[in-house]
Amino acid sequence: MTHPAGHRPPKWANRLLEWYCRPELLEDLQGDLHEYFDRNVARMGYKRARINFVLDVFKFMRPYTIKRPTAIYQLIQKTMLTNHVKITFRNLVKNKTFSLINIGGLAISMVICLLSISFISELNSYDKFNVNHERIYRIQSAYQRSGQPVLNLASSSVYTAKKIKNSFPEVEDLTLVTYGFQGNALTANNDYVSLNGHWATESFFNVFSFDLKQGNPNTALKEPYSLILTERIATSLFGHTQAVGKTIKLQNDREYKVTGIMANVPANSHIQFEVLCSFKTKEIEERNNERFDSWTSLFNHYTYLLLPQNADTEALEAKLINLSEEENAKVNNRSIVLGLQPLDKIAIGTPLMNDLGFSMDQDVVFMVIGLTFIILLSACFNYTNLSIARSFKRTREIGVRKAMGSTRAQVSRLFLTEAIVISILALLIAYPIFEVTKGQVLSFDSELQQAISFETSPKLLVTFVGFALLTGLMAGFLPAVFLSKTKVVNALKGIFSRTSTTSSWNMRKALLVAQYTLSLGFILATTISYSQYKYALDYDLGYQTSGIVNVALGGQDAQTVINEFSKHPQVLGISKSMLTLGTGRYLDFYGHYQNSSDSSQISYNIVNENYLPLHDFEFIAGSNFDKESELVGQSSIIVNEVLLKRFGVDSPTEALGEQMVLSGNKYRIQGVVSDFHSSSLSDEIMPFAFLSTGGFPNASNTLNLKISNDNLTETMSDLKGIWSTIDKAAPFEAEFYDEQIKQTYVSFFSIFKIVSILATIAISIAALTLLGMAIYTTEIKLKEISIRKVLGAQSKHLAYHLSKGFLYPLVLAPVIAIPLTYFVFDEFILTGISYRAPIGILELSGGLAILALIVVLTVSGQIFKSVRANPGATLRSE
Amino acid sequence: MKGTNIGEFEELVLLTIGALHPQAYGVSIKNEIAAFTGRSVTLSTVHSALNRLENKGLVTNHMGEATGKRGGKRKKYFIITSFGVKTLTEARAQREAIWNLIPDAAFKVNLT
Known about the structure:
CATH superfamily of chain B: Winged helix-like DNA-binding domain superfamily/Winged helix DNA-binding domain
Number of strands of chain B: 2
Shape of chain A: globular
Radius of gyration of chain A: 37 Å
Largest sheet of chain A: 11 strands, mixed
Structural class of chain B: mainly alpha
Helix content of chain A: 40-55%
Number of helices of chain A: 28
Oligomer: heterodimer
Largest interface: A-B, 22 and 20 residues
Number of strands of chain A: 24
Order of helices and strands of chain B: HHHEEH
């Protein structure tokens, strides 16, 4: 007994001391600590003494006590590393199938990882080119009409911007950007080039760091009717970029002066434009519009602040809230609460309405990271699984290594090295695939295609390599821990301790279940998202959309265009409308029935007398609008059933001829149509009213052409020809109604495409694992099978015996995957969608059947091979 | 003179080593300092001071015999080197020279 009464200092602290302390100091130091410990036990008791011991061990961690690696140690490290790499390559070549399976599985999942790494790092780089990006903030507005949900807007009002500029001295600078500058300019060779951009105040270049090549950044946006062009648009207008001082004549017959030429807007800027026009121009154009700079007109203007270094943003936000309260007191029924949004949080952040440019919901970004990680994890499982399965063959090697003096740490380093080498090889395969597929991935989504360029930078390549190293560590961790545990004596005698093999078998089963679950989850996700998409497309909206082409009028006179189009023999009918229904957009106002205190939000559309028959709306009572010309001055409306229900009207005929007040004007109900989906299937059916274009002659800007199904392409090109005789500048903007509806649900289709790819990958990796494990199981059990066969076992029993290890996890997987997938879709993906496709037994069992089929196909080949092997040959060769 | 300067705590440790001779090792030095001065010092402070003294060549050490105590670890005994003795004497001589310079009046406490 070295310690009286069996009182010992904590073992781990003692070990820690031995680990860090220099050997020449260790003995004395440890001795002193132990002596001191014994004294403390006597003085203050066992517990306190132990605590003191631990504290002392940490107190002794000083520069002079800490071990330094010796030259010989470093030399050993280096030699061992070369040896490890050499052994790794020998092993790779020796087990070609497994190397291929491992590298292949990792490479497939790495492609996805590389995509999402470059996607996220690109999103992260958004707006960072601004020198002051950390100090730039945007004013956001939480806008609420009484009784309505809050709308979080990225925009704010001109009024707010002016108020901040005049009474907030702590704001260093401020610029106001107004969305939607548009015009057609005539080029030197008599073509029209359309200019798209924004209006901006003169301090634009003080706040942002866009590269103004020519012109004075301080004065370029000072004068009214000044324009700054990007190099690209300047070249297409003038053929060169030396354009400062030139004038451009736009459609509204105003002459604009070019005061600056700037480099093209970087792809990773959330503000995108080709032209900047001075804000003074906008002010002059809107001088008769008193609402232009009112507190509540906040849909088109974006205010960016430049704050000083270390500004107190909380104090500023508090001031903004004060300002909001003051101003809200002056208006009725509406409230706006201003807030600050850092520029760095625009590209990835909480989603805002009417954002100026590209923005990605941070939840989506997290989801991308999560999915990528799951896929990667699955590939690592694959590696872990196969490595541990192979451990039987490696135990002897480990035994020899340990007998020769390898420490456990060195053995685990061998397995980590192997994993890292494999993951680097996988990266070498994954990278070219990534380069090829990145373009395809972007083409899923037109918005993404504009926002993300997927350029490969050196920094990104370094990240990729770092990522591969990390993957190697992750994949190699479990095998390293498991295999380095092997006991020398057992390994050399060829004894596998019962506990270690069964526990590793259990772990492999658990990993297999995890992979099945993942694959099944992705298969289910694919079917669910596809059926939701199909469901939305095939849904009966309550009106006809097939064979209808919607033409945007631009600024053209509706009657002229109608007259010209109706001459074409294939055009069966033409109607006019303001809004295209069923595409997720809506217009609304407030209105009430007989009781003026009970008003409600009502969606509306302004249409002419041809609209309802052309789209086959079903009348329940009353009649269609009269001919437009006879209606001027009087106001009729046609409403839907939900509106009547909302105001407690029992029968449709009862409502006919009754009066309604909508947005302050009186209307007479002329007809009732049965319910239809006016917005999209995400929304409930709303109270709806059709207003006649008779009351709003200029409100409709879309023509609905019903055209016959014959010679569609010819008809379309004819119509285009007719359009070009009417409007020489603007292009013919026509779309099939069905296509527009398809576009509305494109997000379901994107989800479907993404999860179907992920499903394919998860399944391929799982199949690779299965294949690997099947090969190994049959290989190891070959002798056992042969003996069983000799003793009279039947093939089918043997097949069952071999395959049950793969089939049991298959029963467990759906138990986990089905509720999980259902939960994820129910809670996260399909929330807010009112009309959902039912998820039936068919979809669920279909997914399971696919998975079972894959399992059987992968495993059965190996099993049949081993069952049918001639036992004589096997047993003799052993 | 430079290089032979030692700190106040180092001097204390060095003197204690002398006082404990030949039984001066980590724990005994720590206990002795605590007993002499009433200061509670930690073992690690004493050890690092010993390490510094050794680096300066003021002390040397030898390992004792292993016993059943101290977890079976041997003690490391410290002895002052002749250079250490010289340093100590010099430090003392310096102080005494300065002491002698102080006029009595400087220590007279004025009570009025």
